[in-house]
Amino acid sequence: MENASINAETNKIIPPSISFKGVQSHRNNFQTRIYYFNERTSFGTYTTTVDAAKAFDIAIRILRHNDPNLLELVNFPDEVTEPLYILPHLKESINDGIVKVLAFNTNIDEQLKNYIKSLSTQGILRTDLMKLVDERKKKSCSFTTRTQT
Fold it and tell me: Does the model's pTM come out above 0.85?
C-alpha cells in the first residue's frame, strides 16, 4: 500500500491520508465513490490513491460532461483532454460503475444517455453498455417484485 505505515503497538496498517476527491480507504486499498443524485455508486477498488483518483475523474467527466465547472470537480484538471481516454486497467471498473448509475438512477437525462451511447460507439466505453443497463434494470425489477410478494 502506497505511503502506508504500521502501528508499532497493534501491528496494524495505518492507511495514508487521502487527499483526492471521491477516494476512500477500503481495507488495504482505495475505493472510488461518486454520489450522483443522492445515490452512492462505487467505481472500483484500486491499489493506489492515484488510480482511484483517476477513475473518479473519468467517471465525473462522463456523468458531468456538460458541467461548466468540470475542471473544479476533478482531481487532475491538467489531464482533462478530448477525446476522453480511459486507461486500460481502469476500463472495466468505469464500465461497471456507469452501468450501475444508469440502471438504478431514475434522474438520468437523455443528453447524458446520448453522450454515453456516443462513447460506446467510439469504443471508449463497452459497445454493449446500454444492453447491460437494460439487463441490470430487469434483474432489479424482478428482485423487487419477488421481495414484495
Answer: no
